[in-house]
Amino acid sequence: MWGYWRHEFGTQCLFWTSDAKIKDFVTSSGSIRLQVYSKDPHDPHLFQDIVINLERGRGAQSPAELDLEYLTFTGMEDHTTFLRPSVQGKRSRGRPRETWRRSVEREVKRRGFSLNEAPSIAADRSRWRDFQKPHAPPGSEQDWKLRGYALGKPSEHVSMLGRNFLTLRDFSPFEIQQILWTAADLKTRIKGTRELYRPLVGKRAALILQKRSTRTRLSTETGINLLGGKSYFLSPDDIHLGVNETIKDSARVLSGFVDLILARMYKHEDVESLAAESSVPIVNALSELYHPLQILADMQTLQDHFGNLRGLTVAWVGDGNNIIHSYMMAAPKLGFNLKIASPKGYETCPNVTKDAEKLAKQYGTQIFHTTDPREACEDADVLVTDRRIKNSTRPEEEKLECLKAFQGYQVSHRLGKVAAKDWVFLHCGPRKQDEVDDAVFYSERSLVWREAENRKWTVMAVVLLLLEDHICTTPKPDY
């Protein structure tokens, strides 16, 4: 059975047989690569990987012509012809189609593009002229804009290949929007239209959780699996970072096994040490200082609900922890204001506060600090809180002292009376009764369940953009 799937940069043929799927694509070097995978989405095992060199100028070729050994391997009996994309662009009168096709492919190859892109580029004369103009360095933002224009795709794209994702402070507003757009694109294509989109086949990720988390582990493992990759969970019993082996040595060892490392660690310095020594991208799944993945899920949830983040006012009622630190990095760049209520002794980190105030001044937003929860929630569109006692092994005296300090900080409808008329509530979970009452947590104003689901789509977007170039096919939301 034959079918065609439209990929970002051309047509990829999906060959289905009784027990395997064969994917082929024409590379820029003029060859076809056939990869045979199991059809089971939970076990995308690579059976065979064959590369066949093509003669330039040849048209349709059948598997029989190419003498492919995989035919008997997969049990595929019919030799149905598969077509190499042909150029259908306009050409000068009297100029042979074969000469035109070769000239287009030569120019496309010179620019470092895949030959699969030639038909789309040559289909329109104005796009072809624009394509022939002096180009930016491959992989640059200008190069991606030109590539997107030539293919009729959205002109906004930026490559994040190979970068570390430690804090949102390291990413521009455009790049954060690109991550959120990618998350929305994946959610629409995979959940909405049930598209089989598996760009991470053959990719492997290690998941290091010093601090256990249901949401982090499941969102990462299910998300990477949906995209065709594999994830490997390493518990504290499996890998003793800094104990049996130094972080430096562990980073170099793991880099030889996987394509990406996602780390949820206590000390932010340990995450930075991993990034400094690893040769593969490092994703900060949580540290004592930042929790950027959670903020991306919150932003996607608010974007879905309000339709736009710019101009919103978010009220934080809680201590100065890693979540509000990441909010402070994201708010100025995405155009919404922050009002933070924390009791004395539980304020945000001074260094993070200083950086956030500079960003707010640069982007024209406001970050307001207070010790009065009611003052923070006044006219706020979003009320957010988090766990206050995060370490169950703390002495009982410290727990009682913390509960005493946060008296009056419980999010309730009484506190919501001073908020905006259509205010909503967010909590990353798990929650305690002293943080938010049941009336709010289970009300229609609560977006916590959508927030939890969006953890999957945002971590998928981050992993995908760090490992592969992805151009969204859905319209860009209004950020």
From TrEMBL:
The lineage of its organism: Eukaryota, Metazoa, Chordata, Cephalochordata, Leptocardii. One of its GO terms (molecular function) is amino acid binding. Residues 163-303 form the Aspartate/ornithine carbamoyltransferase carbamoyl-P binding domain. GO terms for biological process: citrulline biosynthetic process; L-arginine biosynthetic process via ornithine; urea cycle. PANTHER family: ORNITHINE CARBAMOYLTRANSFERASE, MITOCHONDRIAL, ORNITHINE TRANSCARBAMYLASE, MITOCHONDRIAL. Pathway: Nitrogen metabolism; urea cycle; L-citrulline from L-ornithine and carbamoyl phosphate: step 1/1. It is an enzyme of class 2 (transferase). GO terms for cellular component: mitochondrion. Belongs to the aspartate/ornithine carbamoyltransferase superfamily. OTCase family. InterPro entries: Asp/Orn_carbamoyltranf_P-bd, Asp/Orn_carbamoylTrfase, Asp/Orn_carbamoylTrfase_sf, Asp_carbamoyltransf_Asp/Orn-bd, Orn/put_carbamltrans. Residues 311-465 form the Aspartate/ornithine carbamoyltransferase Asp/Orn-binding domain. Pfam families: OTCace, OTCace_N. Its EC number is 2.1.3.3. This is ornithine carbamoyltransferase. Keywords: Amino-acid biosynthesis, Arginine biosynthesis, Transferase. Homotrimer. It comes from the Eukaryota.
